[in-house]
Fold this protein.
Amino acid sequence: MNYREYDAADLAADASFQAWVLNDNAYAATFWEGWQAAHPDREQVLHEARALVLVLRFRTNEATVEEMETVKHRIDQLLNDTVVKKNNGNPLRRLHYVLGAVAASLLLLAAGQYYWKADVPETTFVQTGFGETKMLQLPDGSVVQLNANSSISYPRKWKKELARTVTLNGEAYFNVSKSPAGLNPKFRVLMPQVTIEVKGTAFNVYSRHDKVNVLLEEGKIVVNDSLNMKPGDMMSFSTGQHQWLKGDATQLTAWKQHRLVYRDEPLINVAQQLEDIYGYHVEFKDKKMEGLLFTGAGPADDPALLLKAIATVHQLKMKQSNSVIIFE
């Protein structure tokens, strides 16, 4: 996730950012405090996003990006108001003034839909670091294996009248319980461009860089309410488009066995995965190197071995400075 490209509304709709603002997760606090220190130029955006989360903290369900945009538009209108302009000597004071007005107007206009924070269902947020995977069990008994640099959030208690719902950023493998007693039979995985409805099944989901790849191993899933997938199917979704994929399914799920597997994969794709999983930044001195194909495998806990293999196979020189890798 490239949070530098997020505006205030995008950040405010992000589960990990919400967990930081609401002091709901120690890992999220560590991540965002470090991110804030590393990106001082984004201070104003962070401040606006934090304010949006606090304004909408009364909601009983998660606020969407569209709702955040609506509130931000209201803030922009108020910032241009004559009364607010009287305080333009202090931008933060202006923003605090505006947020008070926005919060008041929202509560008056939608009193029947907003409740105090004490009534908001508690949310569990789990995030993995670079090079880390994690296994977790959901309230219904479903098991999720979370890949590195990924996050998942879900209500701590699920109610029968509501579909079992999780929000995913990154990559995860799901083994979903079918129709657990006392809970809704519907299970949904939410991502920015894709919603998956599950019919008791096992599948892998990759959601990064505005692209979603789905591999169904067992059972049945319906994507975006219309696309039915059967076992063995692989699909890719990007910018409102989708396509069926062909290839080796074991390559997509090798990370579950803590291995990296590539078969005729362009180096630019390998570099992207190394960035996603380990936080590396890989550069190629010659653009032609990006298209070179690589076939190989190695343990996920030793990415240095894979890097050496790439350099050896294609007779490239490799330089490394902390997390920056340069091939020439």
